């Protein structure tokens, strides 16, 4: 088995975000890391929309990322290729420090420096986990979690190029680092501050006292630029453990020093005679959280202008505080904190100079906010370090909806995907992908459909059924189209576009006849082609008409800005061209073709050219001919292509090549059988080459030229509507998620659907899927599809949280306490307390922004939900909810029809529940199996509960009986009247059953850390017998049966493997290899006596939570779909021929050597992170072929004995055969 | 004799350079503590593992990271009493 890995939807979580002006202009940009991809975003300051400029996979893990600018950055020589923008420095798992620069001309990130310092991998002592930059950009410190810290000096050479020194060591053994930052010291020697803890004493003290007393220290490291040496300048113990540091601006801008964010406190520290300034972190008033919990800041952003600076820091609950610092002659006197707003908890925040706040959420969608107010002039109380407080006491504030921030854009994120199923529930012939995404109150169940989201701008009814529509401009320089022309069977309607769209009669168009085509001609003229002639309308409304001769009429035509070609009945071509005076002149000769014309197309006239040089004509004899329009050999044939079916429509567009940036003409041929051919048209010879084929739908394909983001694109209308456009160096052919269209014209797309005129806009270019979703309350753990009625049943379970019941109980209790506290006081006080208590009970903030209360460890809340995803065309909605009691955690489920109930067995839902579970070390008091009867309305009715003694990790239906993983025991249950009845048991699973999959009499049981075990149920003996297992330990998250002998599995470290049982393995225990019939005879090292063989190994780089065999496109073959915690979806495609495999193997090999991953990680070693990669070719790497330089493309293609176009075609083919 | 000495010094070099390299006197506790510290560091280095923990524990990623750092100080409790010799 050979597989090809392809990512369908890249990761959508953000792990780091930094801002800067990377392109060297004044524009503010954000670079985000998505774990193993880097992406450059540019928020448009006018519209507030975030645009993705480029995206690159680095085949490594980004652990830290910083942007920096060399001092006097703009003074250097600025050229096209050296834009002097900000640099990006990356700490990854490659054991190398990498500095990148964005090259706007090529739209790529280019490696400026790469310095090796250690082993690869996320190791304890190898630097890469932390990065700190001197704020003046003179040095960078890169640190590991323990011991090692390296400092590199950054400088520029005579040509203003960035230089990097050899590393200077600042190691300290037995020391763990929590965080490090560069201290702003102006232009004095660069200084770095580290939060450290020394474990040496704790390791040596058996009483454990030392560990209790060990203090975290804040250590300053100074880089002496004169001596070229790093010294440990000063170290000071801290009172409580901190988790991160914030640099305070220094030099001329501020007092310098650092803010230490520790549990419950914020402390300002600096070198010299500065006192520590300490301020508690304010807490929410009347919070349901466990009062014993500490509060930490999770991330911060700094805003600095010439005159002021402030910090925004976010707490674990999502509350953002604005932190300002008061100084008195360079000495800090006070820290002030003010509640700013609450947004979902972020991993990174960026304040942009343009007044935006970018929030990269830890889970779920990311946001861009506009900062409308700085929170200076409101009544929000300000907390200060100068306010006297008792030790251990803190400030309180009341969270409220946004006041200072305004949401302007939202970036969709699927992260984390916890479960995934592909099914065609809606009966749309293309299957949908159903995903359980998100965490806690921000989670959702989503249906993904492959297609581009369409925004409908206007819909208007038309009299009768139109058959075509065009839009034209009155003058070339006008920004917008002026007329919409709609053609009916026997009339033409002209609509003028202004404030409103209304019918006009003085446009000069002939209204009493159907229209074949209209176009703007030259600068300010219009042309209308109708069956009896051509009407040329000049700007001053003079009309020149050309009448079709005799009994002939015009059947087809092709028009562009300067040329008109018509085909008369009988296959005669007449060619007109506009002369410099604006007159349309007929060419002296006409051309007689061998058969009737079925369609024609002209390309656009390129800027600075007189004409389009080629005409494409589709004939009824299933051919397409290219005819020259060059005056020297006008109307002579140039090339011809035979087609498998009749051509329905043609369209010539100019689009960049898939490979390389050069533009080329592409002839698109829509066939009557629903196939689209896309061929390159040589701009000199007119030769047709490199044909790509795609099946679009069941109806003949009509093609229309439209403009998308300033470049030409093709809209193809079949039974679905597709858009072929070039975006981010790749050609995309994507269906529109919209109703079936009849005809379209470019005007940010006007289209006709049956008898309505619609104006559509396409915004989210580049998106693979569009989504519909239902919000959930707790984290969805698992879901299944009830195939009887296509409902989805979801298990939602959250640790560390209260159920709804418990929350309201707690609220009532707290309100009661408030009232009681005032009970003895004055009547006004009592009334005030009553009002406060009532307000507390009535004003409940939405948990999806304000986070749900943290109940503490061992507190669980769950519910079972039944959802209808809008399969009947309606809105997706929840049909039924069944909340469980506090501390009951729903873990597993399955749908089963009991064999014992015979033919009429109804489907039942079995849910495995653990009570009072403790996560670490794992324990639970007891568990139970709930059996529910499923009604067609979605309702669930409890039949009975069966107590079990352990954690029910997995359930599976097995020949009408129930297989349960109870802790490490595998049990078979049958249904009884009052409870489930235990039939048999196997106690030989090593640790804990995480997943059970069954096929026939075979059961594949996944252990939580010992890979998959193959179990056979022997009916006669009523025994479950392990007959084979894997040789590797794997921490399985999910598995998927590929065939009777083969199982695919994914583990917690981001690997996918396929295990196959060799032919020699027998599941018949009679053939006992030991010969003594000892069933429990253990094989090697306590494993089973027979072993499976690993046929595939692959490191995805993200934790795969779900594996499924699925067909993604109608008519496609099956592939293995995986979904990850980072929110990406990928497929593993099987190769069907040895030849293809050979080709891609060689391509991958060349790509590895020619296109080394950007952050210095070796591709082969990344894909072999935990197990050597086996039998998988990385399509993501192969597809980077298209973004290589043309010369490299050529040399690789030469080695493969092909042309670059053929290689691109191969890449496209394998993708479109299985997916999109 | 010289070669043996050489190997010995090589080992010593490795032990000082790479924390956790075992030697003849390594105890189970040393080994386990090193294992745990290595694991904690790996969890922090792989963003997906950190997310995975954060989802399971229903805590923020920063809190999970902080807890892991705190755990690294003494991941397996205090060391056993050294036998008198």
Automatic annotation (TrEMBL), chain A:
<dbReference type="GO" id="GO:0006397">
    <property type="term" value="P:mRNA processing"/>
</dbReference>
<dbReference type="GO" id="GO:0008380">
    <property type="term" value="P:RNA splicing"/>
</dbReference>
<dbReference type="InterPro" id="IPR058543">
    <property type="entry name" value="Beta-prop_RSE1/DDB1/CPSF1_2nd"/>
</dbReference>
<dbReference type="InterPro" id="IPR004871">
    <property type="entry name" value="RSE1/DDB1/CPSF1_C"/>
</dbReference>
<dbReference type="GO" id="GO:0003676">
    <property type="term" value="F:nucleic acid binding"/>
</dbReference>
<dbReference type="Pfam" id="PF03178">
    <property type="entry name" value="CPSF_A"/>
</dbReference>
<dbReference type="Pfam" id="PF23726">
    <property type="entry name" value="Beta-prop_RSE1_2nd"/>
</dbReference>
<keyword id="KW-0747">Spliceosome</keyword>
<keyword id="KW-0539">Nucleus</keyword>
<dbReference type="InterPro" id="IPR050358">
    <property type="entry name" value="RSE1/DDB1/CFT1"/>
</dbReference>
<comment type="similarity">
    <text>Belongs to the RSE1 family.</text>
</comment>
<protein>
    <submittedName>
        <fullName>Putative Splicing factor 3B subunit</fullName>
    </submittedName>
</protein>
<dbReference type="Pfam" id="PF10433">
    <property type="entry name" value="Beta-prop_RSE1_1st"/>
</dbReference>
<keyword id="KW-0508">mRNA splicing</keyword>
<dbReference type="InterPro" id="IPR015943">
    <property type="entry name" value="WD40/YVTN_repeat-like_dom_sf"/>
</dbReference>
<dbReference type="InterPro" id="IPR018846">
    <property type="entry name" value="Beta-prop_RSE1/DDB1/CPSF1_1st"/>
</dbReference>
<dbReference type="InterPro" id="IPR036322">
    <property type="entry name" value="WD40_repeat_dom_sf"/>
</dbReference>
<keyword id="KW-0507">mRNA processing</keyword>
<feature type="domain" description="RSE1/DDB1/CPSF1 second beta-propeller">
    <location>
        <begin position="455"/>
        <end position="760"/>
    </location>
</feature>
<feature type="domain" description="RSE1/DDB1/CPSF1 C-terminal">
    <location>
        <begin position="862"/>
        <end position="1186"/>
    </location>
</feature>
<dbReference type="GO" id="GO:0005681">
    <property type="term" value="C:spliceosomal complex"/>
</dbReference>
<feature type="domain" description="RSE1/DDB1/CPSF1 first beta-propeller">
    <location>
        <begin position="13"/>
        <end position="411"/>
    </location>
</feature>
From TrEMBL, chain B:
<dbReference type="Pfam" id="PF07189">
    <property type="entry name" value="SF3b10"/>
</dbReference>
<comment type="similarity">
    <text>Belongs to the SF3B5 family.</text>
</comment>
<keyword id="KW-0539">Nucleus</keyword>
<dbReference type="GO" id="GO:0000398">
    <property type="term" value="P:mRNA splicing, via spliceosome"/>
</dbReference>
<dbReference type="InterPro" id="IPR017089">
    <property type="entry name" value="Splicing_factor_3B_subunit_5"/>
</dbReference>
<keyword id="KW-0508">mRNA splicing</keyword>
<keyword id="KW-0747">Spliceosome</keyword>
<dbReference type="InterPro" id="IPR009846">
    <property type="entry name" value="SF3b5/RDS3-10"/>
</dbReference>
<protein>
    <recommendedName>
        <fullName>Splicing factor 3B subunit 5</fullName>
    </recommendedName>
</protein>
<keyword id="KW-0507">mRNA processing</keyword>
<dbReference type="GO" id="GO:0071011">
    <property type="term" value="C:precatalytic spliceosome"/>
</dbReference>
<dbReference type="GO" id="GO:0005686">
    <property type="term" value="C:U2 snRNP"/>
</dbReference>
